[in-house]
């Protein structure tokens, strides 16, 4: 059994300027996305390095707006219906991965319309560069001592004082970092190392993330204001089921489809 050290959330303090660990994890995720995406340009002739920078900017907006609105709609709709002025109070916490995911999809759809690209070609380009950012985000959750797991008798249990008790709990943040972060990255990076049928990479991202998150949710403490829902599943699990099913449909649909190398115009 281990006791969470309750890290100082501020990594660097220079006078009034405070740089938080969670912010550094986001920065690491952004750097990973740019670095990895630019290594994949050879498979997507129409995409330029400037597009990668633009996609990161658009994606950040999609993550923030979608993540917040997703939390409002999926997790606390009644509360925010009666307290609408708090919807934009992001600094108080409350973000949803699934909402952020939908926000990124929407911004990428708009970007494809502007550039005249096929939506799934762009999604296949983006998908392998995302999981490392997710891993850094989960590491940030662990450093902050938030989103802890359910109680466990295992020797690897961690006591999170922030939970308000002395129960050893699953370090579910590290489980998610390992599965939906590093493991999913390794699989997608290998799978995308050669041209694949349109939407196949996107399909594996959706199935991989959805499946990994669904499994880890059994070890993660449900939100106390929600608990478990129908069939004993958490809200996170219910939101992952459509991802898994849609991924399966996309994978079946992708068979025989052309690759981006065959359909995207070369870079000038």
UniProtKB/TrEMBL annotation:
It comes from the Bacteria. NCBIfam families: lgt. Catalyzes the transfer of the diacylglyceryl group from phosphatidylglycerol to the sulfhydryl group of the N-terminal cysteine of a prolipoprotein, the first step in the formation of mature lipoproteins. It is a multi-pass membrane protein. PROSITE patterns: LGT. It is found in: Cell membrane. HAMAP family: Lgt. It is an enzyme of class 2 (transferase). The chain crosses the membrane at residues 12-34, 55-75, 95-112, 199-216, 236-254. A 1,2-diacyl-sn-glycero-3-phospho-(1'-sn-glycerol) binds at residue 138. Belongs to the Lgt family. One of its GO terms (molecular function) is phosphatidylglycerol-prolipoprotein diacylglyceryl transferase activity. This is Phosphatidylglycerol--prolipoprotein diacylglyceryl transferase. Its main location: membrane. Pathway: Protein modification; lipoprotein biosynthesis (diacylglyceryl transfer). Keywords: Cell membrane, Membrane, Transferase, Transmembrane, Transmembrane helix. Its EC number is 2.5.1.145.
